[in-house]
TrEMBL record:
Alphabetized CDD domains for the sequence: HAMP (cd06225), HisKA (cd00082)
EC supergroup of this enzyme: transferase
Protein name, per record: histidine kinase
PROSITE patterns from the UniProt entry: HAMP (PS50885), HIS_KIN (PS50109)
Reactions catalysed: ATP + protein L-histidine = ADP + protein N-phospho-L-histidine
Organism whose genome encodes this protein: Clostridium estertheticum subsp. estertheticum
Localisation per UniProt entry: Cell membrane
Residues covered by the HAMP domain: 189-241
Keyword annotations of the record: ATP-binding, Cell membrane, Kinase, Membrane, Nucleotide-binding, Phosphoprotein, Transferase, Transmembrane, Transmembrane helix, Two-component regulatory system
Coiled-coil region(s): none
Domain Histidine kinase: from-to ranges: 249-464
Length: 464
């Protein structure tokens, strides 16, 4: 980026400097020309007099006068007659041109009363490049009488120009260096350092240092980027924490049944457990294995639901029928708790849009909780009703209410509110699965402490 900026600025300044140099050169030459032409009028008078043999000007005098003027205007002078033959020169070194024709097509221009200027070697006269200005001499009656030629070696004219060029180019170089320093400083401060910091933090996070953050306070896009980056880092950290917790929960949940199964079977094999008690301990081991199976199934369901692998088969299902069947399936457990189940429907059938198996799982998990947490001999109530296009299904049980601080967390995986009281057969996955399914159906579920118990209510879309 720095290189690009530097190149752009250098190119712009070089273009400006070249343009200025060119403009200044043409301005300078124009000025010079005007100055020369202006001076050439001084010579006209004397030249005219000599040409018209009017007065007593001799060739020598003419030569002397133009020599003086040439010194004054710092430029060599030739005078030619109307045919283009040189008859006076200001510089003694040019005597050889006396009496020679020095014009090409310029003579025609002069005859028509125009001036001319040439830059280059002139009339085969000089090795070096010269700048030549020619003006016609025209008498009062308007006839062409000859011409004045002024010339300078280009080096002489250019020497003041060189100074100006130097100033222009030195300024340009300084401007380039200065702007590069300024760009470097600001880009370091505004872009490069902050980006380098974000970069290094990103690298640390990717190496597992997920609690690293970028500390940048600026009100620009980089500041915004840093903020967004930190949000991303927060969520990475949260995910990482969840993942660790999840793994430790799962391992814990799996280890405890395995430990007890191992203990019982080991005891039987070693003969520590008396033969008449073997069956009893085997049945406990069998229960533990069932618990493990349930846990693994729940985990598999859970990860499939979270990964979105469950493409829900949304069809028209009768939720009342699902409730009836689920209650019947759980009869033994209900009886064990001597609970009384109250099922309350507006009509026999209530058709909703949903996935049959997943809705069975929802009702099963909710009813399972109710049975688990209902008071001995308490009441469980399941009801379904409709309001507009929605169906509301709620599962109530009287029993201990859920503490305020737990209300938000009971939906989390492995969360068990009352750890001491919670029954052994519990993993804390039930509600997480329920909520995942309901969310995938794009419906709502919520919990309320009411009527000395707990209500779980969820919505479904009614189908006619
Ligand atoms: N009907 C209820 N009454 C009181 N507390 C409840 C009720 N339902 C759930 N909870 C609380 O919410 C927690 C989470 O419930 P969830 O169903 O997810 O797990 P669990 O029942 O403990 O285990 P799992 O269902 O996986 O066997 C429970 O541990 C319990 O503390
Ligand atoms: Mg449960």
């Amino acid at each position: 980026m720095l290189a690009t900026y530097t190149i752009i600025i250098s190119m712009s300044l070089i273009i400006i400097a070249s343009f200025l140099s060119y403009w200044f050169q043409s301005y300078f030459f124009d000025q010079k020309k005007e100055q020369f032409l202006d001076k050439s009028y001084m010579i006209q008078g004397i030249a005219m007099k000599y040409m018209e043999r009017d007065g007593d000007a001799t060739s020598q005098q003419v030569n002397d006068i133009i020599t003086i003027i040439s010194k004054y205007i710092k430029s060599d002078i030739w005078l030619t007659d109307s045919m283009g033959y040189v008859y006076a020169v200001s510089n003694k070194d040019h005597k050889e041109f006396m009496g020679k024709q020095v014009f090409g097509e310029e003579l025609d221009k002069l005859r028509q009363g125009h001036t001319f200027e040439i830059t280059g070697p002139y009339a085969g006269a000089f090795d070096k490049t010269v700048r030549v200005y020619g003006t016609p001499i025209i008498n009062e009656s308007g006839s062409f009488k000859g011409s004045i030629i002024l010339y300078n070696s280009i080096d002489e004219i250019s020497s003041p120009l060189k100074r100006v060029y130097e100033i222009i180019w030195i300024s340009a170089i300084f401007a380039i260096i200065f702007s590069c320093i300024v760009i470097y400083y600001f880009s370091q401060k505004i872009i490069i350092k902050p980006l380098a910091e974000i970069n290094s933090v990103a690298r640390k996070i990717s190496n597992g240092d997920v609690n690293k953050r970028v500390y940048l306070k600026s009100n620009d896009e980089i500041g915004e980027l840093a903020q967004t980056f930190n949000f991303m880092a927060d969520s990475v950290e949260k995910n990482e924490k969840n993942r660790r917790e999840f793994i430790s929960n799962v391992s814990h949940e799996i280890r405890s049944p395995i430990t007890s199964i191992k203990g019982f079977i080991g005891g039987i094999l070693d003969g520590v457990i008396p033969e008449e008690k073997e069956k009893y301990y085997l049945s406990i081991a069998y229960e533990e294995i069932q618990r493990l199976t349930r846990l693994v199934n729940d985990l598999l369901d859970m990860s499939a639901i979270e990964a979105g692998e469950f493409s829900l088969k949304i069809i028209k299902v009768d939720i009342n029928e699902i409730i009836r069947l689920t209650v019947i399936k759980n009869e033994t457990k209900i009886k064990e708790k001597r609970a009384c189940v109250d099922v309350c429907f507006e009509e026999d059938n209530l058709f909703v849009a949903g996935d049959q198996d997943r809705l069975v799982q929802v009702i099963t998990n909710l009813l399972d909780n109710s049975i688990k947490y209902v008071n001995e001999g308490g009441k469980i109530k399941i009801s379904s009703k409709t309001k507009g296009r929605k169906a509301f299904i709620s599962v109530f049980n009287d029993g201990p209410q859920i503490a305020e601080e737990d209300l938000l967390h009971i939906w989390d995986r492995f969360y068990k509110a009352d750890k001491a009281r919670t029954v052994k057969d519990s993993t804390g996955l039930g509600l997480a699965i329920v909520r995942n399914i309901i969310t995938q159906l794009q419906e709502d579920i919520w919990v309320e402490n009411k009527d000395k118990g707990v209500y779980f209510t969820f919505t479904l879309m009614k189908v006619e």
